[in-house]
Amino acid sequence: MTMTPRSARIRTTGIAGVALFAVLALAGCSSSTADQAAPTQTPAAGGVTPEIQGTVTVFAAASLTETFDALKLAFESANPGVEVVYNYGGSSALAEQIVQGAPVDVFAAASTATMTTVTDESLTAADPVNFATNTLEIAVPVGNPGKVTGLDDFADKDLAIAVCAVEVPCGAASAKIFAATDITPSVDTYEQDVKSVLTKVELGEADAGLVYVTDVKAAGDKVEGVEFPEAAYAVNDYPIATLADSTSPDAATAFVDFVLSDEGQAALSAAGFGTP
Amino acid sequence: MLPLVALVVRAPWGSLLELLSRDEVAQALGLSLGSAALATAICLVLGVPLAVILARSTNWPSPVRRLVRALVTVPLVLPPVVGGVALLLLLGRRGLIGQWLDEWFGFTIPFTTVAVVIAQVFVAMPFLVLAVEGAIRGVDSRLETAAATLGASRFTVFRRITLPLVAPGVSAGALLCFTRALGEFGATITFAGSFPGVTQTLPITTYLELQRDPDAAIALSLVLMVVSVAVLVSLRDRWVPGLSA
User: Fold this and answer.
1) Which residues of A222-256 are buried (b: 16+ CB within 10 A; e: fewer)?
2) Which domains does chain A show, CATH number per domain?
């Protein structure tokens, strides 16, 4: 097939372009894997600990949002070579994503049941460690329009009630409390994670919602909290674990150690979490 | 195409019937089909006149015409969750209009099936309007003129000439509208919430089941896929060029 000079030029340019792109792509791939595979280690001379490098991807329960955001600042200033990236959500959804192969370094769940989803598939590097506990509190919009005073009001059909779906840790805790107190709540919506319940209450769409003590505290003056004694029926343990397939195992372990350290535990209890 | 192939290959064919006959699944299926059908009916009632107006708007000033067209098309390009947030701010208990509904009539929309239908109408209407408008524009105006010269009033022309000619386009638009309404997730879960039998539509149930029983989620995905493909196959090429199977 004969080609006109113009089409031959186009063809050559096209091939050159593809080749250039392929070279750049391969270069990009190999350099990034090199970064992660060999974190720069300064030789330990005179007791200086080697610098940790890498990106730590943390999947964390939605209720940990504000506390972990604060811990990120502290951790990154102590370890300048590390960057922490968060994915917050309902623990059950996060666990499912990990099982489906999401690239994660650390998983912090709001219940041992959701962590079990991950350990059942042998995806963690070691056994999970409990780092905090949390109990539920009733959240009401500012001004308490529904005049909610306790858990009994959840059976009131005239109130708009929001709770977490039972698959999510806060929903499991809610269900446990309702079963223990023999109250049949007249729920209007089952939300996917605790922050969604909080949002519905904040917006005034729900008259009351069951969220964590820490969520009410974190929301400040956007919601009001009503404590109730029956919350003691369901205390959620929060486990944390590094993943076996982590691409930054040193940085991941350092992050978990930081959460379990005095500084991390102080931040957690300041936010309202209980001790593990 | 390949993701759909994977869905079919990995489907739990053995337990499919058992999974689909569970209470919450049957509830979600009934709710989804019912609300989507109602939403389509509402879209037809509101959308066809709107499409007629748009199609006949060639002698409007250009900025007005472009603005109206943009307003109609916005739900098409808006992320569904954004649509849900917007509906909440308008019709929620403290919304612009919603607060008056609550104060005067004691009627709140969120967390009811009404909210599901409204969310579906919001996201699916553009499909109907654009399809019908395209069909109306495609009508040979000489036929309408001929009818007029034979003494037909404008309404008779519309009823007996235009409508029968655009009926295939209207059906195509209605089918697209139905499928879009059936698959709506983001706006529904944000605006209407999620409660079995009332607001927990099929897509929301699929998302929840994925965290609890992935096999059930696959079965539900299969159902949604079959419905969507059936709709697409039934669309004939000349009704919606480029969009049919």
Assistant:
1) ebbbbebeebeebebbbbbbbbeebbbbbbbbbbb
2) 54-133+236-271 (3.40.190.10), 136-233 (3.40.190.10)
